[in-house]
Amino acid sequence: MASTNNSINNNKIIYTSGRPPWYDLSGKLKNPLVIGVCGGSASGKTSVCERVIANLNVRWVVLLSMDSFYLQMPHDADPGKYNFDHPNSFDYDLMIKTISDLRQGKRVHIPKYCFKTHSRLPHMDTVYGADVIILEGILSLYSKELRDLMDIKIFIDTDDDVRLARRLKRDIAERGRTLESVILQYNKFVKPSFDDYILPCKKYADIVIPRGSDNIVAIELLTQHIRSKLEERGFEQDKVMKELTEISRKDIPKNIHIIEQTNQIKAMQTILRNQNTTIGDFVFYSDRLVSLLLEEAMTFLPFRDQVVTTPVDHDYHGKALDCSVFALSVLRGGSCMERPLRAISKGIQIGKVLIQSDENKKPHLYYERLPDFSPESHVLVLDPTIASGASSEMAVRILLDHGVPEKNIIFVSVIAALRGVLLLNYRFPEVKIVIAALDNELSDKGYILPGAGNYSNRFFGN
Amino acid sequence: MDNVVVLKSNNQIKGLFTIIRNKDTRREDFVFYSDRLIRLLVEEGLNCLPFEEKTVITPTGAEYKGVSFASKICGVSIIRAGESMEIGLRAVCKHIKIGKILIQRDESTKLPHLMYVKLPHDIANRQVLLLDPMLATGGTVVKAVDVLIENGVKEENIVFINLIASPEGIKFFSSKYPKIKIVTGEIDGSLNEEKYIIPGIGDFGNRYFT
């Protein structure tokens, strides 16, 4: 249906969020909820999905469009005569694999289809699992194997005339097509495909929504239904949070390790937290505190006994590091901690991820460059602050996806908010968290209070 | 003894000591890992100095009740081995003044002699971090403290930082200067006939410098 789109298909929202808090209170991993949204061209599938996502207000939603899964058009084919509305135009194998991987919480790569060249772009989007996965497209309910992976199947049933009118308007006004060419394509491909393949999918739907996104009542009901399905699966975010906030500072879980609050440590914190501290001093004292923090964090690595002979020919019963250690720097903040790391661990390999939060506090993965991890790797994650814990969570998730065992991860942070650090520990109880300070509160804007302000801004001066 | 602070032992600290105590460790690594340990010792030493309460406003506008250093400090290193600790000291105290004392043992009498001294002019008003990596018999460092006291430094204002101490050395030093805090990395067994600490580290100055 989007065959007439002349630009690269980037208009669909794809949430590349980290894997969700899909653990119940006993720590068991839950399956995400998969929703298929089907309907004819211009029936309003995307608008319905967007409304539902907005209404749901769940942290981790992935919206996938079938448009991403178009097969490469044969080189000799004429785009004007190619049937983009036929089931054979889509890569169902990849769709099935993608959805089933996401269901298992695995990371997937979503191809990007270019409607200019009618081929896949070399770059793919990386998507981490979610609470809710929505696949929308004209033939999303066509394959039985794909349907079997869906928990809720929806058909948007918008009147044919309305759809044709929308399509005409869209293709002529927004895509500069002629009336004749749109109607020709509609009669030749869009309409027959709808009658032969799309409409028959309606019988598989659990819910049929007439009139698409205008149908506010139906969308409201659908949202309610998804919510109740999520609750059945143990989605109890609010309840979990309540229990977490009842943990007092006295019974902090054992894998959250706060460095001993000596005067020395407190004095450095006082300088870092002071709003009047200059960038030079901030960097200096950050380096100093971080190097102590890293020395402390390294005590959690495995060591073996080692006996050495001293220059006066006596035995010394000592210890030697007994594992391969890597670091993962969570940009931009993590890079504030790299210099002190290199100062104590000369040749360490440092992986990098760039995670940015959007206006809804949802973290997005922008960049990842990782060394070759193995199940034996131990990784120090560097991020100077843990505020809400969302990006920290994503960083840990990425390591798990690359085969680093949870117990081999040491998360090193200068200042953490109680709530964020408890949440991180709750989701990944085996990850060791080493911090220099634990602050009580988080402001509405997501700042740690009293905190040190925006750590990277202060370190880099912008 | 409450005037002795030993660095809290853990695998990490133990691992660093294992490297520098090993006679097969090359100078490059000896220097790198000694510097790391010394830095931790200096941080520990600074922690023994007086602090006062200080409240600051963070960039979020909230108050933080913290602390800050209450006094002026300086370092004094005993030449030559003590100078190896200056890098670690400077790494944590950028602008610190450092005095030097050279004490040599008279080969015939075995007694330490003061050869050279250069101290900050206002040292009497400062807290002093005295640096010497090995506390063996304690003869040299006691002589160095004598010099500091002669220059008006108060006994209770001195913190003596070393990497490895012998029980004999601690006993001797504490009997002379009970008010001085000793910050050490590890306490070893005893001294051999040549007055080397066992198992020790050998001649620290030789291993670090030449």
SSE layout:
The complex is a heterodimer of chains A (462) and B (210).
Chain A: E1 33-39, H1 45-56, E2 61-65, H2 92-103, E3 108-110, E4 113-114, E5 119-120, E6 125-127, E7 132-137, H3 144-147, E8 152-157, H4 160-174, H5 179-198, E9 207-210, H6 216-232, H7 237-245, E10 256-258, H8 263-273, H9 279-298, E11 303-309, E12 315-321, E13 325-331, H10 338-344, E14 349-357, E15 363-369, E16 378-382, E17 385-386, H11 390-401, E18 409-417, H12 418-427, E19 432-439, E20 441-442, E21 448-449, H13 455-460
Parallel strand pairs in A: 1-7, 1-8, 2-7, 8-9, 10-19, 13-14, 13-16, 16-18, 17-18, 18-19
Antiparallel strand pairs in A: 3-6, 4-5, 11-12, 14-15, 20-21
Helix pairs in contact in A: 1-6, 4-5, 8-9, 9-10
Chain B: E1 4-6, H1 11-21, H2 27-46, E2 51-57, E3 63-69, E4 73-79, H3 86-92, E5 98-105, E6 112-118, E7 127-131, E8 134-135, H4 139-150, E9 158-165, H5 167-176, E10 181-187, E11 190-191, E12 197-198, H6 204-209
Parallel strand pairs in B: 1-10, 4-5, 4-7, 7-9, 8-9, 9-10
Antiparallel strand pairs in B: 2-3, 5-6, 11-12
Helix pairs in contact in B: 1-2, 2-3
List keywords for this structure.
heterodimer; A: 462 residues; Rossmann fold; 2 domains; five-stranded parallel beta sheet; 13 helices; B: alpha/beta
Short description:
The complex is a heterodimer of chains A (462) and B (210). With 462 residues, chain A is α/β, with parallel strands linked by helices.
